[in-house]
Design brief:
The chain is an all-alpha fold. 85% of the residues lie in helices and 0% in strands. It is built from five helices and no strands. The radius of gyration is 18 Å and the shape is elongated. Keywords: Membrane, Transmembrane, Transmembrane helix.
Length: 105
């Protein structure tokens, strides 16, 4: 949709893209955002849980901070193709969850 909007700036295409993006990120936030914290707490023994969660929060916040500064540069450089890269990363995450999470075996 964003590719079509860049070629022909139509308000309907822009509004549809914003609606789809809003729905996508809404479902993504409900499903994926709480999962790392909840899964880590569930599988870690109590003796190392606090330290492991602190490391997890440190790594997550570091990656998010880098993402805040890098994503706009990439979006400006490759435009709408950035969302295809994002979906490819999500496919890799899905495969890793299927492979590594105990409940999916």
């Amino acid at each position: 949709m964003l590719a079509a909007f860049t070629h022909t700036p139509d308000k309907a295409i822009g509004a549809a893209f914003i609606a789809v993006l809003f729905l996508y990120y809404g479902s993504y936030s409900i499903a994926w955002i709480p999962l790392p914290s909840l899964y880590s707490v569930e599988i870690l023994p109590f003796s190392i849980r606090a330290k492991a969660m602190a490391y997890s929060a440190l790594i997550t916040n570091t990656i998010l901070t880098i993402s805040v500064y890098v994503n706009p540069i990439i979006l400006e450089a490759i435009g709408w193709k950035f969302y295809g890269c994002f979906v490819a990363c999500l496919a890799v995450y899905l495969f890793l969850v299927w492979l590594l999470f105990i409940e999916t075996r």
